Amino acid sequence: MTARIERPLSPHLQTYRWTLTMALSIVHRATGIALYVGTLLLAWWLIAAASGPAAYANVQAFTGSIIGRLIVFGYTWALMHHMLSGIRHFVWDLGFGFKANEREALTWAALIGGIVLTVLIWIIAYAIGGGR
User: Is 28 labeled as ligand-binding?
Assistant: First the structure.
């Protein structure tokens, strides 16, 4: 009778050292899920706009509150981050950006770019009167 050797069937998380690329790939999936939920808020806003002034005022009251603005800000960041991270994955699908320094540069670009674009969108929105 042969002895059974206990070994893992595949590498496990404890085998790998966490990197920013790994973390942002997980965040990319999480922002995709957040966008589904945030799209319900967008649909609520569109339906209220089509339903009349009273319904629209209710949505505006919610999105104008502190909690509502935080949710819309988070939705904006999730959209920007997911878009840039999607471009990062597209570059990889084309067969580019696999060297360690290229991977890191693309990852940092997606992270910083998502934050910068979100802040710029909100600054522009307030500048043109959207934050009244």
Answer: no
